[in-house]
Design goal:
Helix content is about 25%, strand content about 30%. With about 210 residues, it is α+β, with helices and mostly antiparallel strands. The strands form 2 sheets. Strands 1, 2, 5, 6, 7, 8, 9, 10, 11, 12 and 13 form an 11-stranded antiparallel sheet that branches. A two-stranded antiparallel sheet has the order 3-4. It is globular. Mean pLDDT is about 95; it is low at about 1-10.
Length: about 210
C-alpha cells in the first residue's frame, strides 16, 4: 500500500524548507510603517541593554555568542501588527505554514559598534519576521549550510571563523526598508548574526510559532 503523502507539498512551504527565508511583499501600508517607526523613536528611552560575552548552547536548543545591543518592548503599533489577522494570513501563505501564532516581539536598537554574534533563535520561534526601521540597518549574516547544526558545531564555527563568519559558504540577507515588505526567516534553525553597526540602526522583530 502506498503510504506516501496524498497531496503535493505547497510550493511556498517547499521554498521555505529549502531557503529558510522569504520576502513578504506589500503588507505594510506607508502610514502603518511610519507609525511603527515613530513609536520606536518615542520608546528609545525605554531601551534595555543586552550584553553578554559568553558562547553557549542553551537548553532550549538555541545557540548564542557575544552580543551588545539593546531591546525595546513592543508598543501598541507593533503588537497590533503581530496579531493582525490579515497580516497573519499573508505570512502563512508566504511560508506555507498554516498554523502560525504570535509569541513575542521587540525593537532591537543598535548604536555604533553594537552587534549580535552568530546565534540561533529559540526553537519555539518557527518564524521570525524582521522590519528594518532605519536605512542604516545593514544586512544580516546568514549560514543556511549550518541549518540545524548542533551547539558544539556552532561553537567550533566561532572558534574557526569568529563571531561574524565570512567565507564562500556564508552569505547575508538584506532587509527591505519602507517599501511595504518584511523579511521572514527561520532563525530557530539557521544561524545568523549582525555585524557591528556603523551608526544607530533599528530593527523590529516578531516571532511566531507553529502549533
Amino acid at each position: 500500500m502506498d503510504t506516501g503523502p496524498v497531496v503535493d507539498q505547497l510550493p511556498a512551504r517547499a521554498n521555505w524548507d529549502a531557503l529558510g527565508t522569504v520576502i513578504v511583499p506589500d503588507v505594510l501600508e506607508p502610514a502603518r510603517f511610519a507609525h511603527i517607526v515613530a513609536e520606536a523613536d518615542e520608546r528609545i528611552k525605554l531601551a534595555t541593554p543586552h550584553i553578554h560575552e559568553h558562547t553557549a548552547a542553551h537548553r532550549d536548543g538555541s545557540f548564542a555568542s557575544p552580543v551588545h545591543c539593546a531591546f525595546i518592548e513592543p508598543g501598541p503599533a507593533l503588537l497590533t501588527l503581530a496579531f493582525d489577522k490579515q497580516f497573519l494570513a499573508v505570512l502563512r501563505e508566504a511560508t506555507g505554514i498554516p498554523r502560525l501564532i504570535p509569541r513575542g516581539g521587540a525593537v532591537v536598537l543598535y548604536e555604533e559598534g553594537d552587534f549580535q554574534g552568530i546565534h540561533t533563535d529559540s526553537v519555539k520561534s518557527t518564524v521570525t519576521v524582521s522590519i528594518g526601521l532605519t536605512e542604516t540597518l545593514g544586512p544580516m549574516g546568514w549560514a543556511p549550510h549550518l541549518r540545524n547544526a548542533a551547539g558544539d558545531t556552532l561553537a567550533q564555527v566561532v572558534a574557526d571563523h569568529g563571531l561574524f563568519p565570512s567565507a564562500d559558504s556564508f552569505t547575508a540577507l538584506e532587509h527591505p526598508f519602507a517599501d511595504g515588505s518584511v523579511r521572514a526567516f527561520a532563525g530557530y534553525n539557521v544561524p545568523h548574526w549582525r555585524p557591528p553597526a556603523k551608526e544607530r540602526a533599528m530593527l523590529a522583530t516578531m516571532s511566531f510559532m507553529d502549533l
